[in-house]
Amino acid sequence: QKEVEQDPGPLSVPEGAIVSLNCTYSNSAFQYFMWYRQYSRKGPELLMYTYSSGNKEDGRFTAQVDKSSKYISLFIRDSQPSDSATYLCATYNQGGKLIFGQGTELSVKP
Amino acid sequence: DSGVTQTPKHLITATGQRVTLRCSPRSGDLSVYWYQQSLDQGLQFLIHYYNGEERAKGNILERFSAQQFPDLHSELNLSSLELGDSALYFCASSGGTNNSPLHFGNGTRLTVT
């Protein structure tokens, strides 16, 4: 079993839609979770950084951690064509290494 | 702009050759990480250096090696290159405290022909 699993998509939505991106992780001891956005031919860019359970909001983005089900989510409100990118979830494993999901490719159509 | 600089942006070389990728971390960051990204494997952790010392290794091949210099820049050396080594290689840096988020450069795209 992979330590972090993410549906690779692709996911296509119309402009203005609410987008939900999800990951599951294997170990309930993981506590630090991140979401990165990666545009084509660019490096991953940090979007959200959360610790333990709960929600964190930043503008149109909300990160949610549900430790009971080992599930993390990223919600994008009022999605824009400029949000079209690959979104990667990440967490620190027990060995202290930052491990990534496979990434979900999102396309927001005007 | 993350503040992490990687050179070169692109590299094309032949099988059996050796290349060196360079990374300058964000100002003040002591930790440097190297990742490999390929279509089928996603982002894979290779190695972590903190203030010149190796801290952790991932699934890094023996043909690959890295170092971090006193000025904190880092180099990743890839030797005896194979077609399968073609990938994007990313460097990331962080302030060094455990569980800090990483900040990535824009990568070096390596093509082995």
Account of the protein in words:
Chain A contains no helices and eleven strands. Chain A has 110 residues and is an all-beta fold. Helix content of chain A is 0%, strand content 56%. Chain B has no helices and eleven strands. Chain B starts with a strand and ends with a strand. The mean pLDDT of chain B is 95.
Name a few traits of the molecule.
heterodimer, A: 110 residues, mainly beta, 6-stranded mixed beta sheet, 5-stranded antiparallel beta sheet, 11 strands, B: 113 residues, 7-stranded mixed beta sheet, 4-stranded antiparallel beta sheet
How would you concisely characterize the structure shown here?
Chain A is mainly β. Chain A has strands at residues 4-6, 11-14, 19-25, 32-38, 45-51, 54-58, 61-66, 71-76, 85-92, 98-100, 104-109.
Topology of helices and strands:
The complex is a heterodimer of chains A (110) and B (113).
Chain A: E1 4-6, E2 11-14, E3 19-25, E4 32-38, E5 45-51, E6 54-58, E7 61-66, E8 71-76, E9 85-92, E10 98-100, E11 104-109
Parallel strand pairs in A: 2-11
Antiparallel strand pairs in A: 1-3, 3-8, 4-5, 4-9, 6-7, 7-8, 9-10, 9-11
Chain B: E1 5-7, E2 10-13, E3 19-24, E4 31-38, E5 42-50, E6 53-57, E7 64-68, E8 74-78, E9 87-94, E10 103-104, E11 108-112
